[in-house]
Design goal:
It is a single chain. This protein is of the alpha+beta class. Helices cover 25% and strands 31% of the residues. It has a 6-stranded mixed beta sheet. Strands 5-6-7-8-10-9 form a 6-stranded mixed beta sheet.
Length: 284
Amino acid sequence: MVLSRGARWAAGVTAAVCMALLLGPSAPGGAAPLRFGAAGEVVPDRVATWNLCNPCGGIGHDFGRAKEIARYAPQVIGLQEACVRDVEQIRTYLEEVYGLVYRVEYGTVLRNWNRCGGPPWRPGGFGQAILSAAPMTDRVNVEYPDGGSEDRGYLAVTTLVGGRPVRVFNTHLAERRQGGVRAGQVEVLAAEVARHDRAIVLGDFNAVPYAPELGPMWALALDTDPGCRPATAGTGAGDVCTVTTDWNSKFDYVFLRGITPRTHRVRPSPYSDHHLLYSDLNRD
């Protein structure tokens, strides 16, 4: 039997209701729980970054991820380790369940059946994605010359945050034991960030704050975590940086250039080994 589009939508929402009941209404960290089907509004000066963890999928994961994003409703969020199909499902839940409408741009760096599924002749796209409540322009997707053990890159767009245009970057650097590769990637990224007076750089850098390869980024911008600054290894710099992973390291950053942060929050999630990191920005 072939269902009409309306019937398919109703079936999808019914499934989402059931999933919402299974996942429960509670919200971590004092955030107000969301009522199913409530019309949502984004926070216009809030930006976020989240490595979704792949492979960390399972039944209900995309709905759970949408629930986490809707709980904090950022104007812009950068996602890493993102499969195109998963992001499309997350966007559908955000709109149809929570009333949050996001545009999306993808920074696919590879097509991989093991990562993202799909038929062998059409494997899913894998890489970065940026969701924005405002339109995005001037999209650029760059693969780093050396990705390390897996292709890596950055995605950049121009959009509105706090009602003002800003260049937003989203990146995922080489794996943690590949500092030399990351150093080359940061040079490529920093050279582009330096061209903009106002920029937000989101991402999983796979490096702690005092890692030498992050030097060019620290020279251009500050992290939204007010107590977290670069320092020499062993000086305790990591002790004042809020950890962003399940293994108690800070790998995830919201770097700000020409913009200052107002608040900064890190929220663990059962749907990833990275925490969702968001920041509310001052309207400088």
